[in-house]
Amino acid sequence: MPDAVKLAFGPFAAPARGVLVVFCDDALKFGSATTRALGAAAEQVARAAKAERFTGKNGSALGLSAPEGLKVSRLVVIGAGKASELQQFDFVKLGGAAVGKLPVSASEATIFAELPGGAMRADRAADLAQGVKLGSYAFDRYKTKRKEDETPPASRKVTVAAGDPAAARSAFAAREAVADGALWARDLVNEPANVLYPEEFARRTGALKKLGVAVEVLDIARMRKLGMNALLGVGQGSAHDSRVVAMRWNGGKKGEAPVAFIGKGVCFDTGGISIKPAAGMEDMKGDMAGAACVTGLMHALAARKARVNAVGVIGLVENMPDGKAQRPGDIVKSMSGQTIEIINTDAEGRLVLGDVIWYAAQRFKPKFIVDLATLTGAIMVALGHEYAGMFANNDQLAERLTKAGQATGERVWRMPLGKEYDKMIDSKFADMKNTGGSRHAGAITAAQFIKRFVDDKTPWAHLDIAGTGFDSPQSEINKSWGSGWGVRLLDRLVADFYER
Ligand code: BES
Ligand code: MN
Ligand code: ZN
Q: How far is it, in rounded angstroms, from Cα 40 to Cα 391?
């Protein structure tokens, strides 16, 4: 991971270099260190604010070039709104907003972590820095040419000036681990499918080993022995072999049951024989966003040495049409022993998840299971890009995910499960079929399918991230197509409810 931004923490008193970013509230008030740093420029800010009707509303910004009396090239004032109402995630967003207002070419900036009431607490300054990191990400490794005014510096140095720089720096360590996990997930989602196919994805998970994560890759022969025929059926039309990767982080009590995260990793989804229309098919390089999230999460947990036992298991396949591809009407026997009639080869994610969830449950006997999958277009019809759909067999797990979602801004909305929906996937020829046969309740029938591979005693939640994993609206903290959605959410779930 090359770092687009180098972050440092320093005192307010150090001279600001490059661009200076400061915060004010909705009364245009500054903290005392900020006021001191601005000196005579404060007057210029007041005049510019009036001229531009800048009121300090949260997220708004005012920029001044070459401000009088200051040694910086540019001054950016960011509105924090009502400072007393700011929640943790607001500080992350303020950090993202700050980098968003830097000129593309800026190679150096100082951000004052101060509000009118005084220096931000060390943990809030660290949240701000996390936002800087998330907001600085761009996937540009395949750009060889640029317009002059769009050329970013090779690397950018951002200094967060804080009341207690040492405390902020130490609070940032865990937040940086989580941000790095999210950025890795973004990279994986953004990579094209000619580069990131199942074997290559599996190879990249090997980077986790140096953090102390045990990484085990299952090849085709091993999967055949295990009876993962539902997953293997999806991949059988591809020139690339399928893989399953199991990643284990043991930071908790020895012998304690792990928490388990499962990801759909369809490296490209053409639909198979039930081929998709051409328009927008390129987006299906992101059909492994669930697996990317699980991989990024394992990085986050290990890099911040989370005091938890966790496993991440991902099913990596490519869904292609071919002479060897699976057909509609085929019947496969899953690892669970249950048989599945394939109605539509484009409903492939659930086939992958069915086997991977079953495998993870048998092998690791987890405390709970959360799976993530870009599973259905139907969930986008229901929720757009703002919430992921959540299906759960356990109220406590659902509530915890909802809370973690509110805290991190990666929000989930609970959807129903029920026997009436379950009936829709009964098959004439096999134990079940892989679609409900109608577009109605498409996200729910997909969830019901997965539910048939989970035993009722294991708390389980399924997150349909088709609307959030990629191509969601840009925000302060994400300008990238691949969002890395879910890494911060699940890290928070673990931190708030499952660490000893
Ligand atoms: N990967 C797709 C779902 C998807 C579509 C995710 C667009 C993100 C953006 C999934 O494999 C799929 O094709 N689902 C079908 C299911 C249908 C055939 C029952 C769908 O949603 O149309
Ligand atoms: Mn599909
Ligand atoms: Zn898919």
A: 57
In the sheet with 259-269, reading across from the earlier edge strand, the strands are: 214-218, 243-250, 309-319, 259-269, 369-373, 460-464, 388-392, 412-414
The SS3 assignment for 454 reads coil
- Cα–Cα distances (Å) from 23 to 45, 99, 126, 129, 161, in that order, read 12, 13, 15, 14, 12
Q: What residues have CB less than 8 Å from 472, skipping those under 6 apart? A: 385, 478, 483, 485
> How far apart are the C-alpha atoms of 161 and 98, rounded to whole Å?
13
Do residues 35 and 121 make contact, with C-beta atoms less than 8 angstroms apart? no
| Cα angle, residue 236 at apex, residues 225 and 369 outer, rounded to 5° | 60
* CA 348 / ligand 2 centre spacing (Å): 5
Q: Which residues, 6+ apart, have CB-to-CB distance to 142 below 8 Å? A: none
Residue 204 burial (10 A CB sphere; 0-12, 13-18, 19+): middle
Mean pLDDT in order along the chain per 10 residues (500 residues) = 83 94 98 97 97 97 95 98 97 98 96 98 98 97 88 93 98 98 98 99 99 99 98 99 99 98 99 98 99 99 98 99 98 99 98 99 98 98 98 98 98 98 98 96 98 98 99 97 98 97
Give the binding-site residues of ligand 1, using a 6 Å CB cut-off. 269, 283, 287, 344, 346-349, 374-378, 435, 442, 466
Q: What is the CB-side half-sphere exposure of residue 436 using CA atoms within 13 A?
A: 21
- The verdict on pTM exceeding 0.85 is yes
Nearest atom within ligand 1 for CA of residue 434: 19
Q: Could you say which ligand is closest to the alpha carbon of residue 378?
A: 1
Confirm whether 350 is a catalytic residue.
Answer: yes
Whether 373 contacts 462, CB under 8 Å: yes
CA dist., res. 323 & res. 272, Å (int): 11
Only one residue has tokens 């051409």, namely: 278
Q: How far is the CA of 188 from the centre of ligand 2 (A)?
A: 19
Asked if 294 and 371 count as a contact pair (C-beta separation under 8 A), the reply is: no
Q: Which amino acid is at 276?
A: K
Protein residue whose Cα sits closest to atom 7 of ligand 1: 377
Instruction: Please give the structure tokens belonging to residue 286.
Output: 């992101």
Residue 311 contacts residue 261 (beta carbons within 8 Å)? yes
**CA 371 from centroid of its chain's CA atoms:** 13
DSSP string for residues in 292-336: HHHHHHHHHHHHTT-SSEEEEEEEEEEE--STTS--TT-EEE-TT
d(CA 359, CA 365): 10
Q: How far is CA 183 from the centre of its chain?
A: 8
String of DSSP letters for 341-359: E-S-TT--HHHHHHHHHHH
The one-letter amino acid code at 453 reads F
